[in-house]
Design a protein that fits this description.
Helices cover 4% and strands 58% of the residues. 51% of the residues are buried. β28 (498-510) and β29 form a beta hairpin. The chain contains five helices and 38 strands. It is globular. The longest helix has 7 residues, at 78-84. The strands form six sheets. It has a 22-stranded antiparallel β-barrel. A five-stranded mixed sheet has the order 5-11-12-9-10. Belongs to the TonB-dependent receptor family. Keywords: Cell outer membrane, Ion transport, Iron, Iron transport, Membrane, Receptor, Signal, TonB box, Transmembrane, Transmembrane beta strand, Transport. It is a multi-pass membrane protein.
Length: 699
């Protein structure tokens, strides 16, 4: 099918799961308070001091100082989340080096992004140290208000985490019960008729203080910059921790979210003919118009998702500690869209189970110290999708005439040894995975075609660092990755697993006597059978390619005693296609700029008549990039600079009777700079200015 009209091209983006992708307080004291997020396994505990994270378990599954982890790691701390108030995962990662957000412009349906030039949307997001299992059209949405922090591990982590990309993982850390009472309510209002109410309650649940609770939630009624797209949400996340003694801890974590956004978020593109090297006539976008490609009367994309699981930890002695994490998750989607004035509908049901059990042993062999980890984990995915189009008037659901289903299981065993001798740190890790998959597709009521896959793969990591007494730690590492993929590729065949490898050299520096750190890393990674999305004749299709990415990153974070907090970063990334089609070999990967940089400054007034005032502002620079893998100049993306801002005031400083109350205003893209962004041969527009005002009360 050839798309000869702009309407056809843009509306086609809402068809089928694959096509849906194309839219595709700082205290006044001289020392900041150190915050420890406690939890058995997963991302906790995290130790953070303002913007500066000093220890986490995300990097090694053991509680290790970040300075001693031979891997590039960035953390979005609770202080940053509270001050910037991100509305989704992309907002939260927008100041993180190596992360490219906004590749699909304004699209609230999915958190689509890349790290080090690699699309990590489906296979790199973890929740509390467990893989967040997704299907082609069933991706879990994130509510940032339910997070304590975000850890970004750049580079392969398959040696301990299993299925994940060569670019790394993003570990989302859930809020957990606090041992001291904490209560908060908040109301918000802002752009596009936004109305929201938040609550977060935590503390001991019994007099003996062996049982603790947390209940976090929100209700939102809002629209978006495209009037046809809603931004409604109900979210609730209960958690309970049982801690009978210092050696044993059990935490139950659950979540339910019901959200509605738009089934299509694309603008109509103008199309023109294109003839490839083989003489085939294709139609490629030559730019976006300001005409919305959907229809407000039939555009709701409702998603209901839930998860429940636990984290258990027991220390048998000072040497041995057992940990287990389990999570069951499920989601249901109902996506409406309009295509050439006819309604279309996609429904998908997804279930997943993740289980990770490991034991840690700490011991010495002469002058050498060991922290060994051995474990097994299991993950299971099952989804069933149905699609239908046309045949009924607008506003009525089409008959669901086509269906797909897939089941995947992955079982892995792994071991890791963190070896310390004097100032040297050697990390060795290895893992073996067994993978099986069954995919079915066909017309409803007919016998489906079936494809089975079985595979096994080994991954590993070796890294060496030298930790000096004055806070400097250079390191080198080599690691490999393996990840199964869901869904099919352009030919209709089931997507095969992706493999990769990376070499990295870096240096970390914690400034002596200061709550500040600097990180820098250079890398080269390769991926075979990497999954990307390509708009072909107006339809977005999943394809697989071999690629190479090289570059370097630098990041600095600080929260100083004078009230100033800083996060600054710069990234250079050269991502190239090694194997796809003859026309694209050696080309730059679509929408990946050579240069990105960001700077966020926040200042909390420490005294005087303005005490209680906090001012924050940020600048994000995204360099020029190419709009398709053919590297046609007509789709070049211009460089752009976006400005964000925040202003807050603790009303207690105005009147002691208002203790615990804070008013805050946040603005993203403050200057309302909206540019066209083209990715994989289709063009979008950036999200415009958004302003949110809030009134918070803590007691």
């Amino acid at each position: 099918m050839f798309c000869r009209s702009a309407l056809l091209a843009s509306a086609a983006l809402a068809i089928l799961p694959s096509s849906a992708w194309a839219q595709v307080e700082t205290p006044r004291s001289v020392q900041l308070d150190e915050i420890v997020v406690e939890g058995a396994g997963g991302g906790g505990p995290i130790t953070a001091n303002g913007y500066v994270a000093t220890a986490t378990t995300s990097g090694t599954k053991t509680n290790t100082p970040i300075l001693e982890i031979p891997q590039s790691i960035s953390t979005v701390t609770q202080a940053q989340l509270e001050q910037r108030k991100p509305q989704n995962l992309l907002d939260a990662l927008s100041y993180t080096p190596g992360a490219r957000v906004g590749t699909y412009g304004f699209d609230p349906r999915y958190d689509a992004f890349t790290i080090r030039g690699v699309d990590v949307t489906q296979n790199a997001v973890f929740r509390d140290g467990l893989r967040q299992i997704n299907s082609p059209n069933g991706l879990f949405r994130l509510e940032p208000y339910g997070l304590e922090a975000i850890n970004v591990l750049r580079g392969p982590s398959s040696a301990i985490y299993g299925a994940s990309t060569s670019a790394g993982i993003v570990d989302l850390i859930s809020k957990r019960p606090a041992e001291t009472p904490f209560r908060e309510i908040e109301i918000q209002g802002g752009s596009f008729g936004r109305k929201q109410f938040n609550f977060d309650l935590s503390g001991p649940a019994n007099p003996e203080k062996t049982l603790f609770y947390r209940l976090t939630g929100l209700v939102r009624d809002a629209d978006n910059q495209i009037s046809a797209i809603k931004d409604d949400r109900v979210f609730i996340a209960p958690a309970i921790t049982w801690k009978p003694n210092e050696a044993t801890k059990l935490t139950l974590l659950a979540e339910y979210m019901d959200s509605t956004t738009g089934g299509t978020a694309a603008y109509v593109n103008e199309y023109g003919p294109y003839i490839d090297r083989s003489g085939n006539l294709l139609y490629k976008s030559i730019g976006a118009t300001k005409v919305f490609g959907g229809d407000k009367r039939y555009n709701d994309f409702r998603q209901q998702q839930g998860r429940i699981g636990y984290e258990f930890e027991h220390a048998f002695s000072e040497i041995f500690t057992l940990r287990q994490r389990v999570r069951y998750s499920a989601l249901a989607t109902n996506q409406q869209y309009v295509y050439l004035a006819d309604p279309g509908l996609t429904r998908e049901r997804t279930q997943g189970l993740s289980v990770d059990t490991n034991i840690e042993a700490k011991f010495d062999t002469g002058p050498v110290s060991h922290r060994m980890l051995a474990g097994v984990d299991f993950s299971w995915l099952h989804y069933r999708g149905k699609e239908g189009f046309g045949g009924v008037p607008l506003g009525y659901n089409a008959t669901l005439g086509y269906r797909t289903a897939q089941s995947q299981t992955l079982f892995g065993i792994y071991a890791q040894d963190q070896i310390s001798w004097q100032n040297w740190r050697l990390t060795l890790g290895g893992r073996h995975d067994w993978f099986s998959s069954r995919f079915e597709a066909g017309a409803a009521g007919a016998l489906p075609t079936e494809t089975k896959q079985n595979d096994a793969h080994s991954t590993g990591r070796v890294a060496l660092s030298y930790v000096t007494s004055f806070g400097l730690a250079p390191y080198v590492s080599y690691a490999t990755s393996f990840v199964p993929n869901s869904g099919t590729v352009l030919s209709g065949a089931v997507a095969v697993p992706t493999t990769g490898e990376q070499v990295e050299a870096g240096v970390k520096y914690d400034l002596p006597g200061q709550n500040a750190s600097l990180r820098a890393a250079a890398y080269e990674l390769r991926q075979n059978n990497a999954v990307v999305y390509e708009v072909i004749n107006g339809f977005n299709r999943q394809v697989q390619l071999d690629m190479r990415s090289r570059g370097f990153e630098i990041e600095g974070v600080a929260s100083l005693a004078n009230g100033l907090s800083i996060q600054a970063s710069y990234s250079y990334n050269d991502a190239r296609i090694l194997k796809l089609t003859p026309e694209t070999e050696g080309n730059r990967l679509t929408s990946i700029p050579y240069h990105t940089a960001s700077l966020w400054l926040d200042y909390a007034v420490q005294g005087g008549p303005m005490h209680g005032l906090g001012i924050g502002g940020g600048v994000r620079y995204v360099g020029a990039s190419l709009g398709d893998n053919l590297n046609r100049s007509i789709l070049d993306n211009k460089p752009r600079t976006l400005v964000d801002a925040a202003l807050r005031y603790d009303l207690e400083k105005l009147d002691p009777r208002l203790k615990g109350m804070r008013v805050q205003v946040n603005a993203t893209n403050l200057l309302d700079k909206v540019e066209q962004t083209c990715t994989a041969g289709f063009c979008y527009f950036d999200e415009g200015r958004k302003v949110i005002a809030s009134l918070r009360y803590r007691w």
